[in-house]
Write a structure and sequence with these properties.
Length: about 675
C-alpha cells in the first residue's frame, strides 16, 4: 500500500515536472506559449507544494531548482571531454575564397560539398553535460581544455532544458551528451534591464556581452537569475550510449538538437561559397534588426565526416571559418571632452576623438556616459582610448589604454557652469547626473524640439537640428507647440529658406497633427517615458487630459512604471510651462485620442498569429508595421521558424525570405497584411 502511494506520487511529480518543462520550452525556446503566465505559475506552485511536503523527492533537474542553489565560494575546474575549439577568422570575401582553395587542395571532395551558415553570436561559450536526459553540469570554455563549473548559474537560464527530450514524442535522449552553446542577452532585454536599473537609481550596463559575461560568473546564482540571460546551441561536442542517431551533416545535428528540446541557432543551407558570402552580407544588412548582437557569420562544411577529416590548425578546425563583420572596436586618441546639454538640462560629456574608421564608418565623437564614468575609468584628455560602435548604437568609449600613456595626459574636471548659458550647474542627491537648472537655457529648448520632431516621436520630416536652432534663435519657437503656428513668412526670413522649402515644412508640420497619442506622448520628453511606456500609457488613457489627472499610485499599477517614472509623469503635468504647452497643443488641434486597450484586444484579428517582417516596406515604417500587428493582438518576432504564421515581405528581402520559403511559411505583402486585418 505504502509503495503504491509513493509510486503514484512519484508519477504525479514526474508528470507535473514534464508539463512545466514543456510549457517552459514553449515559452522560452519556441517563443510560442500555450498557457498564460498565471497558469504556468499555478503549475509551479503546485509542484512547490508537493516538494515542500516531500523534500526527499526533490531532484536537481526539477523546474523548482533553477535558482535554488546557495552562493558558491569559488568555481571548480572541469576538464572538457574533448577540446572546445575556436575558429579562424576572415574579414573579407577574398579570405573565404582563399579558405575554400586551401581546403580544396587538401581534399577534392570539397568541390562538391555544401555548407551551413549561422550567425556568430556575440556571447559566451558554454559546455553543457546531460546524463540520462538530465542536465548534470555546465562549464565555461576556459582555455578550451579546462573550464569552470558554473552549473548553478546555468540552471537559472530558462531557455536551458533541465531535462531532454522535452516532449514525449521526440526521440529518446542518449545516455551522455555534451552540447556546446552560447549564452547571451537579447538587445530588448538588455535595454529593459538598464531601464529597471536606472529606475531604481543604479548605473546602467555598458553592453549586452559584458553583462552576460559578468552575470555568468556571479558566485551567487540568485544574481545570475535576475539577469535576462538566454541560450542557443550549435554543436554536439560528445555523445555516447545506445541511442545515437546517425548525424551525417551539420544540418542533421542541429535539427537533432532541436528535437531534444534545445534552442538552436538559425542556419542557412548553401550549395556554393558564393552563396555563403551572400548570406553573410544579408546578416550584415539585417544585423540591427536581429534580436541579439552578432559579430559575423560562421561558415561550416555540412558533411561532418569531411569536416573531421580536414583536421585542425592549432585550435581551429579547417572545416569551418568565422566571417567577421568589420571591427567594431578600435583605439584612438582622445583629443578633448565636450559637454552636451540635454532636454531635461542633464549635462552629458562626450569624447572628441582623433577621427577613426569603425566598421566602415568615420567616427569623430563618442559618448562618455556621465562624469562618474570618466572618473571611475580615469579617462584623461590625451589618452589613447578604446571606442566601440555596435549596430546602430552611438559609439561609446570603453576606457583608456593605460600602458600607452606618456605623462602628457591631463585629468579632466567636470564643468561648474553650463557650457551653453554659463549658469551654475547642480547635482541631485542620489543621481549620477549634473543638471543645468536654468529653465531659459536655449540648449535645452533645442534638444526638446529636436526630440519632439524626431522619427520615433512626431516624425516631422525636413526639420533637422539646424532649422530647429534657427527657429529658436529667431524667437519663433519658445516651446514645442509654437511649431504649429509657424507661418510661411516667418520661415522665409530664415537663411536657406525659399518658397518650396517653406511650404514643405509647413505641410509636414500640419501632417504630424495626425500622429498617434503614443507618439505625442513620446515626443513630450517626459523623463522615463520612451516609446514603450508611451504606448502602454496610450492604451489606458484616451488623451493628454486624461493622463494629466492620473496620480502616482494609479500609474504605478502599470507594468514597467515604477515610482520614479510615475513621479516624473505627475511632475511634468503639474508644471505651469507644461500645462501651457498642453493647452496650446489642444487649441491648435494637436490632440490625438486613443482607443483603450480592452477594445483593441477583444477584437484582435491577429490574436495568436506570429509575424516576421523582412525587407523595406513602402506604406509603413518598421515600427508602424509592428504597431499595426500588435494593436490587433498579433506578435512580431525577428526570426522565421516553424511557428511563424506569416512572413511580411518588403523590397529587397533578406535571408528570412529564403528561410520562409524553405519552411513553407505563408508569405504576404503589405497590401495582403492590411487585407488580413480587415477580414
Ligand atoms: S562553431 C568547431 N558556431 O565563436 C566549431 N561558434 O570564434 C567552433 N560562436 O568560441 C565553434 N556563434 O563562442 C560556432 N554559430 C556559431 C557560433 C560560434 C558564436 C563563438 C564561439 C566560439 C567563437 C569562435
Amino acid at each position: 500500500m505504502e509503495d503504491r502511494t509513493s509510486q503514484e506520487l512519484q508519477k504525479k511529480l514526474n508528470n507535473l515536472r514534464a508539463e512545466i518543462n514543456f510549457h517552459n520550452y514553449r515559452y522560452h525556446v519556441l517563443d510560442n506559449p500555450l498557457i498564460s503566465d498565471f497558469e504556468y505559475d499555478q503549475l509551479l506552485l503546485k509542484l512547490r507544494k508537493i516538494e515542500s511536503e516531500h523534500p526527499e523527492l526533490i531532484t536537481p533537474d526539477s523546474p523548482t531548482q533553477r535558482a535554488g542553489a546557495e552562493p558558491a565560494g569559488k568555481f571548480d575546474k572541469v576538464n572538457h571531454p574533448v577540446p572546445v575549439l575556436s575558429l579562424s577568422n576572415a574579414f573579407e570575401a577574398a579570405d573565404i575564397w582563399k579558405w575554400y582553395e586551401r581546403i580544396l587542395k587538401l581534399d577534392k571532395r570539397v568541390a562538391g560539398t555544401t555548407y551551413v551558415v549561422e550567425p556568430k553570436l556575440d556571447g559566451l561559450t558554454v559546455v553543457l553535460h546531460y546524463r540520462n536526459g538530465s542536465f548534470e553540469m555546465g562549464a565555461t570554455r576556459g582555455d578550451g581544455t579546462v573550464g569552470e563549473d558554473i552549473t548553478a548559474n546555468l540552471r537559472t537560464i530558462r531557455a536551458l532544458p533541465l531535462k531532454i527530450p522535452i516532449s514525449k514524442d521526440a526521440s529518446e535522449s542518449p545516455e551522455y551528451i555534451v552540447v556546446r552553446g552560447e549564452v547571451f542577452i537579447e538587445i530588448e532585454s538588455f535595454y529593459e534591464l538598464n531601464r529597471r536599473l536606472e529606475e531604481s537609481g543604479n548605473k546602467p550596463y555598458l553592453n549586452p556581452r559584458n553583462t552576460a559575461a559578468g552575470s555568468l560568473r556571479q558566485l551567487d546564482p540568485k544574481l545570475t537569475a535576475s539577469r535576462p540571460l538566454t541560450l542557443m546551441t550549435y554543436q554536439i561536442l560528445y555523445i555516447e550510449g545506445r541511442i545515437i542517431p546517425s548525424l551525417r551533416t551539420e544540418e542533421e545535428m542541429l535539427s537533432y538538437l532541436g528535437e531534444l528540446g534545445f534552442p538552436v541557432v538559425d542556419s542557412t543551407y548553401c550549395q556554393t561559397i558564393a552563396e555563403t558570402i551572400s548570406v553573410h552580407s544579408d546578416f550584415e544588412k539585417e544585423r540591427t534588426e536581429m534580436p541579439f548582437e552578432i559579430d559575423g557569420a560562421v561558415i561550416k562544411i555540412n558533411d561532418r565526416e569531411l569536416f573531421e577529416s580536414l583536421g585542425y590548425v592549432g585550435k581551429d578546425p579547417r572545416g569551418a571559418i568565422a566571417f567577421k563583420f568589420p571591427a567594431q572596436e578600435v583605439t584612438t586618441k582622445l583629443l578633448d571632452i565636450g559637454v552636451n546639454v540635454g532636454r531635461t538640462g542633464v549635462l552629458t560629456p562626450y569624447a572628441i576623438l582623433d577621427s577613426v574608421k569603425i566598421g566602415g564608418v568615420v567616427v569623430k565623437q563618442a559618448t562618455l556616459h556621465n562624469f562618474d564614468f570618466i572618473a571611475e575609468k580615469d579617462i584623461r584628455i590625451g589618452d589613447r582610448v578604446a571606442v566601440k560602435r555596435a549596430g546602430d548604437v552611438i559609439p561609446y568609449v570603453i576606457g583608456p589604454v593605460v600602458d600607452a600613456r606618456n605623462g602628457d595626459e591631463v585629468i579632466y574636471k567636470p564643468p561648474l557652469l553650463c557650457p551653453n548659458c554659463n549658469q551654475p550647474v547642480e547635482h541631485i542627491d542620489g543621481e549620477v547626473a549634473w543638471y543645468c537648472v536654468n529653465a531659459t537655457c536655449s540648449a535645452q529648448l533645442v534638444r526638446n524640439v529636436e526630440h519632439f520632431v524626431s522619427r520615433g516621436a512626431m516624425d516631422i520630416v525636413g526639420l533637422g537640428i539646424k532649422i530647429v536652432e534657427q527657429l529658436i534663435s529667431a524667437g519663433f519657437v519658445k516651446d514645442v507647440s509654437d511649431l504649429f503656428t509657424l507661418e510661411k513668412a516667418e520661415l522665409l526670413e530664415l537663411e536657406g529658406f525659399a518658397e518650396k522649402k517653406a511650404d514643405n515644412l509647413i505641410e509636414s508640420i500640419a501632417e504630424s497633427k495626425k500622429q498617434s497619442l503614443a507618439r505625442l506622448l513620446t515626443s513630450l520628453g517626459i523623463r522615463g517615458v520612451g516609446e514603450v511606456i508611451a504606448a502602454d500609457l496610450a492604451r489606458i488613457y484616451t488623451d493628454l487630459d486624461a493622463l494629466s489627472f492620473a496620480n502616482e499610485e494609479e500609474l504605478q499599477q502599470i507594468e514597467g512604471i515604477g515610482p520614479n517614472i510615475a513621479q516624473a509623469i505627475v511632475d511634468w503635468f503639474s508644471q505651469d510651462t507644461n500645462k501651457n504647452v498642453v493647452l496650446k497643443l489642444k487649441s491648435y488641434g494637436v490632440w490625438p485620442r486613443s482607443v483603450p486597450q480592452t477594445e483593441i484586444y477583444t477584437g484582435g484579428t491577429f490574436n495568436g498569429l506570429v509575424f516576421v517582417i523582412t525587407g523595406t516596406l513602402s506604406s509603413f515604417t518598421r515600427s508602424e508595421a509592428k504597431d499595426f500587428i500588435q494593436q490587433r493582438g498579433g506578435k512580431v518576432t525577428n526570426s522565421v521558424s516553424k511557428n511563424t504564421s506569416y512572413l511580411v515581405r518588403g523590397d529587397n528581402p533578406g535571408s528570412k525570405f529564403d528561410k520562409a520559403l524553405d519552411l513553407g511559411i505563408s508569405i504576404i505583402n503589405e497590401a495582403e497584411l492590411q487585407e488580413l486585418a480587415s477580414e
